[in-house]
Amino acid sequence: MTQMATTVGEVREAVRAARRRGDRVGLVPTMGALHAGHVSLLRAARAETEFVVVSVFVNPTQFDDASDLGAYPRPLEADLRVAREEGADLVFAPSEAEMYGDAPWTTVHVAGLTESMCGARRPGHFDGVCTVVAKLFNIAEPDVAYFGEKDAQQLAVVARMAADLNFPVRIRPCPLVRDADGLAASSRNARLSAEARAEALAISRALATARERIEAGERDAATVRAEIEGVLDAVDGLEPEYVAVVDPDTLEPLARIEDRVLVATAVRVGKVRLIDNCLLREVPEAGA
Ligand code: AMP
Q: Whose CA is nearest to atom 7 of ligand 1?
């Protein structure tokens, strides 16, 4: 049975009851409008922990753009259905007042990792993410928390925060999930017209080509970046914000691609901002 909670007290009570039974607690933090990407996280949590908590909260403090926050989908009924179908034990869908009261004076800031890529374009975004994730960790006290590699910078930042602040939680990365046409699954995709979606497919195409080039032995980061920029620039409706070729954990830009690389991009398609990436953990030897 899937329980529904809207208050911190209800979550604490349910989680503590689960712990008394000896259950391990898995937390899947989301902003709702659940899709195949979220489902993959829920399934990993279901397979690895006995008590699965999914939070559904459109966190206002991580939005740097009021129109993006206003347009963010909030289909709570459909989300509850998905959570039930996937066997979640508890859905936590708090109000803004429940999460922040009237004075969110404390924020969590991870330096360094948040200054580049999305952090450079979205002031305050990662402080909002870290603050809400820290709160969710303290509310649900999970043993394992599930985060998608789709949001690669977020994953690196949250892992750093959890380590630095000694949260007793394992951060479990989950692979990026794509729709059948290649577009990275995202709650924001619902806002794309058919035409915009067709244009947006250049993003995953460019990243797939980058992967092939690296697997075939390309080692020069600037060459990889320039090729992706070339593909994206050639599509009228796309406005790339950045293309980054970095170390997946430190997010330091790479000059030469060695054994691990994250190639990440953010692109505006009209009013919709999309992110996507390709992650290679073991780059084959050049010429191998
Ligand atoms: P969001 O609701 O967009 O804040 O995402 C909640 C969680 O789902 C985050 O950990 C995301 O990285 C993850 N997620 C979102 N989209 C995908 C995807 N296409 N593949 C894998 N994980 C995803």
A: 30
